Amino acid sequence: MGLHQAIVIGGGIGGLTAALALHRQGIPVTVHERAASLEPVGAGLALAPNALRALDRLGVGPRLRALAAPHPAIGVRHPSGRWLVRTSTAAVEAHFGDPIAAVARADVIAALVDALPAGTVRTGSPATVVDPGGPQHPAVVRSADGDRPAGLVVAADGIHSATRALLFPRHPGPRYSGFTTWRAIVTPDRRPAAAGEVWGRGGLTGIVPLADGRVYVYAAALAPADTRAADERAELLRRYGDWCAPVPELFALAEPGRVLRNDVRELADPLPAHHHGRVALLGDAAHAMCPFLGQGACQAIEDAVVLAAPLTPAADLAAGLPDYTAARLPRTTAVVTASRRAGALIALHTPAATGLRTAALTLAGLLPARTLLRRSAPVYDWRPPTPHHGT
């Protein structure tokens, strides 16, 4: 493998999107995924307009749009059930030209894999960078196949990225945000009438209708790091059992062994760059963030199309990496910061503080929809770059 071929480390959404973006540019690419298989994960994903435009560019947007379950409105409620602020999904689409498409994460993975040539993704194949390479020599990636040179390595190896630690050993790495999260997909007898979030003292819950009658439910709460309950469904009912319907009913439908619990860690300190040598960091490896803007996967998808857009099979694949950092570092740093600020609002837990938050959200709910939606414009209005000549 020479300087005109690429290796992706990590078969999550960011890594697979990068592989597809590179493939669309005519660049031979191999994906190494540590897990034995790309098994479905019991979680949903909100593809915001910025991500949908990128996926449209790669040809998989229409498939995912078709899988999104329609619902009339989104917003935030009080645990009593009272709406604080909401807007119609039609208003979102009218304002930004695209909807927020809620789909199962597994469906996004499947769409990306199906668009790649057979054999591109190698599961059960951990890989590490042993040499990041330089202008005159390739990077080197070690896997069960041995050491392989590459003109470009895309490190999409997650929040605990070994590649990031190799490239930037002085960076402090991820830190605990104070929140833990729970996620599950359930199938109720009927679709819930309300979608969106419920904000309470030091936490929230969310309801996202999916296709085929399924519903993605999630929660976040302030909690000590690295703690687990013997039964996470019971823990959800303990914390949220007295919140408004249908929150308790949906959590009660979750299979105890399939409730995902994860502590939220973020890269609060931006990296000095999103590349080094011939290696580009992408997604959580580059800019792990709190989930409160729903932009973690969306920003990884943006990374992928920006990285691949200027590349051609005949050119040095690493020549544009400084431009990749220049385009992505300021934007992702801003989104990480905004996500942390949203988390600070959710973290409020004293009666006085939550009362002020409730009053502020109620006042915001009285504003015209276009005024509320303009606040999301810096994130949602992003457009993918025009790719250079690919296949």
In brief:
35% of the residues lie in helices and 23% in strands.
Tell me about this structure:
- This protein has a domain of 219 residues: FAD/NAD(P)-binding domain (3-Layer(bba) Sandwich), CATH 3.50.50.
- The chain is of the alpha/beta class and 391 residues long.
- α1 runs parallel beside α5, α1 packs parallel to α10 and α2 runs parallel beside α10.
- The radius of gyration is 21 Å and the shape is globular.
- The chain starts with 5 loop residues before the first strand and ends in an 11-residue tail after the last helix.
- The protein is built from 14 helices and 18 strands.
- The strands form four sheets. A seven-stranded mixed β-sheet has the order 5-4-13-14-15-12-16, sandwiched between helices. The chain has a six-stranded mixed β-sheet with strand order 7-2-1-11-18-17. A three-stranded antiparallel β-sheet has the order 8-9-10.
Q: In percent, how much strand structure appears in the residues?
A: 15-25%
- Per DSSP, the total helix count is 14
CATH architecture of one domain: 3-Layer(bba) Sandwich
Query: Which strand order does the major sheet show?
Result: 5-4-13-14-15-12-16
Structural class: alpha/beta
| CATH homology superfamily name of one domain | FAD/NAD(P)-binding domain
List the helices and strands and how they pair.
Blueprint: E1 6-9, H1 13-24, E2 29-32, E3 44-47, H2 49-57, H3 61-67, E4 73-77, E5 83-88, H4 89-96, E6 101-104, H5 105-115, E7 121-122, E8 128-131, E9 139-143, E10 146-150, E11 152-155, H6 162-167, E12 175-186, E13 196-200, E14 203-209, E15 215-222, H7 232-240, H8 247-252, E16 260-266, E17 275-276, E18 279-281, H9 284-287, H10 296-308, H11 321-346, H12 351-365, H13 369-374, H14 377-380
Parallel strand pairs: 1-2, 1-11, 2-7, 4-13, 11-18
Antiparallel strand pairs: 3-6, 4-5, 8-9, 9-10, 12-15, 12-16, 13-14, 14-15, 17-18
Helix pairs in contact: 1-5, 1-10, 2-10, 10-11
